[in-house]
Design brief:
By secondary structure, the chain is mostly helical. It has a single domain, classed as Orthogonal Bundle (Arc Repressor Mutant, subunit A), CATH 1.10.10.10. Helix 2 crosses helix 3. The longest helix has 17 residues. It starts with a helix and ends in a 20-residue tail after the last strand.
């Protein structure tokens, strides 16, 4: 299933938080970051879980787990012409 741009942004935010702190954000932190109500953040997470991109345990507030890699544009490459300066 394809993901929306917002879903890719959410996955990127989760991935960044895991990389920075070792833990995923809570739904409340996700809501604050994107300007959502808490219920909307949880709805977005459930949609990602239904699409097979996220595992959401029922008991842990920070127990979500990414499934697979974020496949949106996170980095880009530029071709290099000529020689780099010495």
């Amino acid at each position: 299933m394809s993901l929306t741009i917002r879903q890719l942004q959410i996955l990127g935010f989760i991935e960044d938080r895991i990389r920075e702190s070792g833990d995923p954000p809570s739904a409340e932190e996700l809501a604050r970051h994107f300007g959502y109500a808490d219920a909307m953040a949880r709805d977005q997470l459930q949609r990602l879980a239904r699409k097979g991109r996220l595992e959401l345990p029922t008991a842990a507030a920070r127990g979500m787990r990414l499934l697979g890699e974020v496949d949106g544009p996170r980095q880009f490459e530029l071709p290099m012409f000529g020689q780099p300066p010495h």
